[in-house]
Write a structure and sequence with these properties.
412 residues; alpha/beta; 3 domains; 6-stranded mixed β-sheet; two-stranded antiparallel sheet; 8 strands; 18% strand; DNA-binding; DNA binding; DNA recombination; Transposase_mutator
């Protein structure tokens, strides 16, 4: 580069710099320098490759022309020529064969935007506006797919041996499957460990629930190191209680009172729901199980003839609906409903509510995984008054919950 070319480059760079334009983009002043640097580095790598290849092969290897590729960076895009070899064994390091994005921070931004619920088109427009760089939705899809190994690793990560309380509930999404849009359930399992910290233990997609499905889920949790669950809270999904006891026979199961109430009111005439609920509160808000059972008998005497299906449901499920009466009020408040996992679902819905049908099960898992990781970052403190709660659990479940007070006493 002669003196005049250097001066012209300097003037162009200063102008673009003060105008806030990209210096490395397609028309950037420094684009030729970056292009030259990358191409020289690739040539040097090719020379090294051919030299080592020649030693290893009697016939040696040779150059075989050049290809072209456009690489993206946070400063814009650069079109470069890439050397090729006859044996196609050249694996460059500075820019890998299938690499299209130079800057790691751009990849992180793309995945972060995807995790906030932005569509690939939205991300494409944002990158264009911010960096003057065109990235196809295909490339963006490839980048977000880099999350898949992390999703699988997270799904199979080891779990703690004991979780004090576990809640399970489902979210429903539309997913494309074999060319058709299907309604699928995404079941999330939220747990509280002995230190009072919340953690999403796993997420599982199913078209239909049942004992066999839940047996697979619980077996996988067991294989990941979960040896014991003290209390499991569920919304009375078909086969779930049986599946839990087949793997964890000593687990206390509490059916969600709120779900039971909602299901009951579906069969009560709207004009009588207010009066019915006043009588029903005497059941689930009783101080003791005996008082609750007395109130349930009175409820049956008053409403049993008119709403036999509702009363039968309470009687049939009573043993699992009334488990929480065996605990103190602070623990009752935690386990009588699946609200904790439903609260997690509300946060996920803030991101997924604008989505139509997901392109695949993995597309759904990718997004919910990213949202989950963001939510879990905020779960840094144990539940309120956990020190007192966990001591009560340790006494009730003697020998199953090792607090190890000498080294890791849970803190309030």
């Amino acid at each position: 580069m002669n003196q005049q070319e250097k001066q012209d480059l300097k003037q162009k760079a200063l102008k673009q710099f003060f105008n806030g334009e990209s210096l490395f983009g397609k028309d950037g002043a420094f684009a030729p320098m970056l292009k030259e640097f990358l191409e020289e580095a690739l040539e040097a790598e090719m020379e090294g490759h051919l030299s080592s290849d020649k030693k290893g092969r009697p016939m040696g290897n040779k150059r075989n022309g050049k290809g072209q590729k456009t690489v993206k960076s946070s400063h814009g895009e650069v079109q470069i020529e890439t050397p090729q070899d006859r044996h196609s064994s050249f694996e460059p390091q500075i820019i890998e064969k299938r690499q299209r994005i130079l800057a790691d921070n751009l990849e992180k931004q793309i995945i972060a935007m995807y995790g906030l619920g932005n569509s690939l088109r939205d991300i494409q427009d944002h990158i264009k506006e911010m960096y003057d760089t065109d990235i196809s939705t295909e490339v963006l899809s490839d980048i977000t797919d880099r999350v898949i190994p992390k999703v699988k690793e997270w799904q199979n990560r080891p779990l703690e041996p004991v979780y004090c309380i576990v809640w399970l509930d489902a979210m429903h999404f539309k997913v494309r499957d074999e060319g058709k849009v299907k309604h699928k359930a995404l079941y999330n399992i939220l747990g509280i460990n002995k230190h009072g910290k919340k953690e999403v233990l796993g997420m599982y997609i199913s078209e239909s629930e049942g004992a066999n499905f839940w047996l697979q889920v619980l077996t996988q949790l067991q294989n990941r190191g979960l040896k014991d669950i003290l209390i499991a809270c569920t919304d009375n999904l078909t086969g779930f209680s049986e599946a839990i006891h087949s793997i964890y026979p000593e687990t206390d199961i509490q059916l969600c009172i709120v779900h039971q109430i909602r299901n009951s009111l579906k069969y009560v005439a709207s004009k009588e729901q207010k009066v019915f609920m006043k009588d029903l509160k005497l059941v689930y808000q009783a101080d003791t199980k005996d008082q609750a059972e007395t109130a349930l008998l009175e409820l049956e005497e008053k409403w049993g003839t008119k709403y036999p299906v509702v009363i039968r449901s309470w009687n049939d499920n009573w043993e699992l609906l009334s488990t929480y009466f065996e605990y103190s009020r602070p623990i009752r408040k935690l386990i009588y409903t699946t609200n904790p996992v439903e609260g997690f679902h509300r946060q996920v819905r803030k991101v997924t509510k604008s989505k139509g049908a997901f392109t695949s099960d993995m597309a759904l898992l990718k997004l919910v995984y990213l949202v989950t990781r963001g939510i879990e970052k905020k779960w840094t403190s144990p539940l309120q008054n956990w020190g007192l709660t966990v001591q009560q659990l340790a006494i009730r479940f003697e020998g199953r919950l090792d607090l190890d007070l000498r080294t890791s006493e849970p803190k309030n």
